[in-house]
Write a structure and sequence with these properties.
This protein has 298 residues and is an all-alpha fold. It folds into 2 domains: 1-109, Farnesyl Diphosphate Synthase (Orthogonal Bundle), CATH 1.10.600.10; 111-298, Orthogonal Bundle (Farnesyl Diphosphate Synthase), CATH 1.10.600. The protein has 16 helices and 2 strands. The protein has helices at 2-15, 19-26, 34-43, 47-70, 82-86, 88-106, 111-134, 142-168, 172-196, 199-202, 208-211, 217-225, 228-237, 244-256, 259-279, 284-294, and strands spanning 75-76, 79-80. A two-stranded antiparallel ribbon has the order 1-2. It is globular, with a radius of gyration of 20 Å. The protein starts with a helix and ends with a helix. Bound molecules: farnesyl diphosphate (FPP) and magnesium ion (MG).
Length: 298
């Protein structure tokens, strides 16, 4: 079924009648297509469902193209990012093309689905702006972090699940909560892996987030647990290129204060809530997606 989504995206791109765009799109690695899989699992494989899944994946791909420019990221999914290969201008414009074509196609689904998805893209953009603004100072406020990741990542998963429920005539709210929790947990895990995985496995430099000024959940927990001397040292390292010794110091302090364990536990609570909601509706396949997300090496 996911193949049908790939074909639909290719068809939407072919509609544009532009060889350069088609060739650039072919260079993008596909990723896990998590949002499309979620939509298909909730709503089956009708034409509107396939189209909605394709639209959401095009919007997601656009947001990552822009995000890599914003983050100065030269590696995406273990390959050179499009901005690394062709420069920022091309990456931004391909992003613009993908998301505006997505919006054009959204008009053919339903007004309610269009409202849900386009509102999520507003949230996504607000979240990305917040992420950039927050990284200018050391953010130690967990609620501010949670609100930012809700907007930046969870809003599109929440809307994907909600749109699929609408298309399938299922109860929207429960599916939206499922998508929201999954999105929050997904971003928390992404932030944890930036610390725990070596750069080769991760496909991007490790501890990049902190060097970029991002104080993700493990850093917030670490800061809370440290004495004032260590907390001041941590703050002084924020937003700087770290030496190997400084990286090791941070990792060792995280180990001592169990910052990673606390963060994984927080993501697991959200996933368990999502699983309970879906099990109550006999949606075991959706619980399966949620379980697969947390059964990883941290
Ligand atoms: C990845 O975050 C970024 C997002 C999930 C959202 C990005 C949103 C925008 C750039 C707004 C513009 C939207 C459109 C549709 C053009 P990350 O940097 O934490 O994750 P990463 O490790 O995968 O880079
Ligand atoms: Mg990024």
């Amino acid at each position: 079924m996911i193949d049908a989504v790939e074909r639909k995206i290719e068809q939407f791109i072919a509609d544009l009648g532009d060889k350069e765009v088609a060739s650039l799109y072919r260079k993008l690695p596909h990723g896990k297509r998590l949002r499309a899989k979620l939509i298909l699992k909730i709503a089956g494989s009708g034409l509107s469902v396939i189209k909605t899944a394709a639209i959401v994946e095009m919007i997601h791909a656009a947001s990552l193209l822009h995000d890599d420019v914003i983050d100065d990221a030269y590696i995406r999914r273990s390959q050179p990012s499009l901005n690394a290969l062709y420069g920022n201008k091309t990456a931004i414009m391909l992003g613009d093309i993908l998301y505006s074509k997505g919006f054009l196609e959204l008009n053919n689904i339903s007004a309610e689905v269009a409202r849900l998805v386009s509102n999520a893209v507003v949230q996504l953009s607000l979240g990305e702006l917040k992420d950039v603004s927050l990284s200018k100072t050391f953010n130690a406020d967990k609620d501010v972090y949670l609100q930012m990741i809700y907007q930046k990542t969870a809003s599109l998963m929440e809307a994907s699940a909600g749109a699929a429920a609408l298309l399938a005539g299922k109860e929207r709210d429960a599916y939206m909560t499922y998508g929201r929790n999954l999105g929050l947990a997904f971003q928390m895990i992404d932030d944890i892996l930036d610390i725990t995985m070596d750069s080769e496995t991760l496909g991007k430099p490790a501890l990049h987030d902190f060097e970029e000024g991002k104080t993700t959940l493990p850093y917030i927990y670490l800061y809370e647990a440290m004495d004032s001397t260590d907390a001041n040292r941590l703050k002084a390292l924020h937003g700087k290129k770290l030496t190997k010794d400084e990286q090791d110091w941070i990792k060792q302090k995280m180990y001592k204060h169990k910052s990673i364990e606390k963060s994984v536990a927080e993501a697991k609570i959200l996933v368990e809530e999502a699983i309970t909601l879906m099990n109550a509706r006999g949606e075991e396949a959706l619980s399966g997606i949620a379980i697969a997300m947390i059964e990883r090496d941290f």
